[in-house]
Specification:
single chain, alpha+beta, five-stranded mixed sheet, 9 helices
């Protein structure tokens, strides 16, 4: 019991240290936000001056040369573009600031929880079963860590993917709007590019929603969702996938979600790091525990070393998956070596 209490106290201290480091980063971002806001204010003045100059030209076309008119439109357009880019950059800094602030608040709550648990364990030494306290505490810690790690990963994906794409769409739309009167031909070209970008962004948003929570999982079940995902993976990554399915017994929803997340995370890892020419996915739902196997013929890796580094960082998708599986009483086994491919076996009790 005393050792457990001391370990939790050390964890609380580490969390507090992490909070302080993040606060330093938060202050740095606040400085960038202020600097960018000042730059936007100066650029707004320049843009206003360019717009005023352009209005003068438009009101007295006959008094200006063709080159003066061209430069007037170009200056106003460039000033507007710079202003839009600066505002987009400010929005990114502000989004990062909000994300860090939320993360700090969650770490603070986790620190307070760990401190209270350590204090309770110290006070109740000899009065309560050690296994009971440690088990409850570990479950709480693992649940919070898994949730926050997943949220942080999704927030980053949203920021780098759909959110950035939508920001670019807004920028393109405003450029087209400004070009309609001055350069109709270029405006039509930009409009065509905008339409293409909108279609690409729409597909990326659909893919993001599917990755976040496939509605098929609720409507049709696990197997159709896995089939759809592997087909989509094969198309996007140009990587052949062999899917072996055994059994179709109904499983609790939280088990189905975990199995799907296991397939998703392991296949994404193959696409990002394995340099493979094929992937094989096996699901055995009739086995007890249920079995998920993802194997590839890629470059392989030193599993022990990579996982140890990932556990130290705490933000890896593989570690989040590992925590989920362990909380359900399952385990993950990695068989891999450099240059010899990778085979990952996930066992999840169905009851």
């Amino acid at each position: 019991m005393p050792n457990d209490s001391l370990q939790i106290q050390n964890t609380a201290s580490e969390l507090l240290s992490e909070v302080e480091q993040l606060r330093i980063e938060l202050r740095e971002i606040e400085v960038l936000i202020r600097q960018t806001s000042n730059e936007i204010e100066r650029q707004s003045q320049k843009q206003a001056e360019a717009s005023s100059r352009l209005r003068q030209i438009e009101a007295n076309f006959d008094s200006y040369t063709r080159e003066d008119v061209r430069q007037g439109y170009a200056s106003e357009r460039d000033a507007q573009l710079k202003l839009l880019l600066m505002r987009s950059q400010l929005e990114q800094f502000q989004a990062k600031h909000r994300q860090l602030d939320r993360y700090i608040q969650q770490l603070r709550k986790l620190h307070d929880l760990a401190s209270r648990v350590a204090e309770t364990m110290g006070e109740q030494e000899g009065e309560m079963s050690p296994g009971h306290v440690v088990s409850d505490h570990d479950a709480v810690i693992q649940t919070i860590e898994a949730q926050e790690s997943e949220r942080q990963r999704l927030a980053q994906q949203m920021h780098d993917g759909p959110a950035q794409s939508l920001t670019n769409l807004i920028l393109q739309a405003e450029i087209v709007e400004r070009l309609f009167d001055a350069e109709p031909a270029r405006a039509r070209t930009e409009l065509g590019q905008l339409k293409t970008s909108a279609n690409v962004t729409f597909q990326r948003v659909r893919d993001f929603i599917f990755a976040l929570r496939p509605m098929m999982l609720d409507d049709l079940g696990l197997l159709p969702t896995v089939r759809r995902y592997t087909q989509q993976f094969e198309t996007v990554n140009k990587l052949p996938v062999t899917l072996n399915l055994n059994g179709d017994r109904p499983l609790p929803p939280y088990i189905e979600v975990t199995i799907f997340r296991a397939v998703q995370e392991l296949m994404n890892n193959v696409a990002k790091h394995a340099h493979a020419s094929r992937v094989q996915v096996t699901l055995d739902l009739n086995a007890e525990p249920t079995v998920v196997i993802v194997e590839d013929d890629g470059s392989g890796f030193d599993a022990a070393q990579v996982l140890a580094r990932a556990r130290e960082r705490g933000g890896s998708g593989l570690i989040t998956l590992e925590k989920r599986v362990e909380m359900l009483g399952g385990n993950i086994n990695y068989q891999s070596a450099t240059g010899r491919g990778t085979r990952v076996r996930v066992l999840i009790p169905a009851t």
